[in-house]
Every structure is written in structure tokens, then in C-alpha cells.
Specification:
It is a single chain. The protein is of the alpha+beta class. It has one domain (7-164): Alpha-D-Glucose-1,6-Bisphosphate, Chain A, domain 4 (2-Layer Sandwich), CATH 3.30.530. 26% of the residues lie in helices and 41% in strands. The chain has helices spanning 28-36, 38-44, 136-144, 147-164; strands spanning 7-12, 17-24, 51-57, 64-70, 76-87, 91-99, 112-121, 124-132. Strands 1-2-8-7-6-5-4-3 form an eight-stranded antiparallel sheet. Helix 1 packs across helix 2.
């Protein structure tokens, strides 16, 4: 990542939210595709050495992305994203959850409500992410699992994917 690209990661315990603002050296169309196309998501979503693998994806309101992150020893961690609202190249909102291979939610972990917005600024795109939790304990649990470190690594992976797409 170029030092000139904006990156902020803030935790707001009063609102049970994580706020991430990240700038990418690519136009909004390319960045949007990277966040919404399974073949591209798989190239960057998981922090290395894990890889993301899509079981199914229906990127429409009411649709779902069912995927897993596979570790170096073959271990699989399943997740799903239920899409609630989509405005192409502007924003999407959804609910994430840890789950089993069939999409049944693992109630031992909290769900995350994501709102992801995209804004073209010159030849760059700013992505603003709000990850919201029902209660403070949920936020703290996700942070304790290494969310900041893992998501920061994944966003760095996205820089590499975008650079290779030019």
C-alpha cells in the first residue's frame, strides 16, 4: 500500500461499531467488482496464509454469499453474508455470520451488520466501512478474534489484486 493512500481503523465502543476508511488506487467500477464478484473476492478476502473459497453467491437484495476461509492445514471456517440493500457502485449493506457448510448460523459468535460505501475521488476510490454489533460484548469478541489484523491484511491483498488488474 502506498503511504499516500488513506487508511483509518477506529473502534467506537459507545456505538458498538468499527469504522474503516480505506482509499484504493483504482476507479470505483474496479473496486466495486472486487468487493462483489466471487472470483475476485476469493483473491483478497482472506488474510494470508488463508484463502477464501465461494460455495455460492447471489449478490442481490435477499441473496447470500456462502464461503469459507481455508487454512494451510486444510481447516475451513465457514461464513455467510446476507445482502439487505445494494446500490450499484455506491453501497451495499448486509449481515455476516459464522456458520456451517450449509449456511446455518453459529450462535456462539455475533452477527456483524456491514454498511460499505464507495466514492470515486479523482482516479482513486474511497471505501467507507461500518461494522455494527448488537452489543459491546459482541464487538469486543470480534476484536479479540483478530478482526483488525485480519481485515487490515485482507485490504492489503486487495491493493495487490487491483494493481495486477491495471
Amino acid at each position: 500500500m502506498s503511504n499516500s493512500l488513506l487508511f483509518n481503523f477506529d473502534i467506537d465502543k459507545t456505538k458498538n461499531e468499527v469504522h474503516v476508511v480505506r482509499e484504493f488506487d483504482a476507479d470505483v467500477t474496479l473496486v466495486w467488482k472486487a468487493w462483489t464478484t466471487p472470483e475476485i473476492l476469493e483473491q483478497w478476502w482472506a488474510p494470508k496464509p488463508f484463502v477464501a473459497r465461494t460455495k455460492s453467491m447471489n449478490f442481490t437484495p435477499g441473496g447470500m454469499w456462502l464461503y469459507y476461509m481455508e487454512g494451510p492445514q486444510g481447516e475451513r471456517h465457514y461464513c455467510k453474508a446476507d445482502y439487505l440493500e445494494i446500490v450499484p457502485e455506491k453501497m451495499y449493506r448486509g449481515l455476516d455470520a459464522f456458520c456451517d457448510e450449509n449456511g446455518n448460523i453459529n450462535e456462539a459468535f455475533p452477527r456483524t451488520e456491514w454498511t460499505v460505501t464507495f466514492e470515486q475521488k479523482g482516479n482513486r476510490t474511497t471505501v467507507n466501512i461500518v461494522a455494527r454489533y448488537a452489543k459491546l460484548e459482541d464487538l469486543e469478541q470480534i476484536i479479540s478474534l483478530g478482526f483488525k489484523e485480519g481485515f487490515t491484511m485482507a485490504l492489503g491483498n486487495l491493493d495487490e489484486v487491483l494493481a495486477a488488474s491495471k
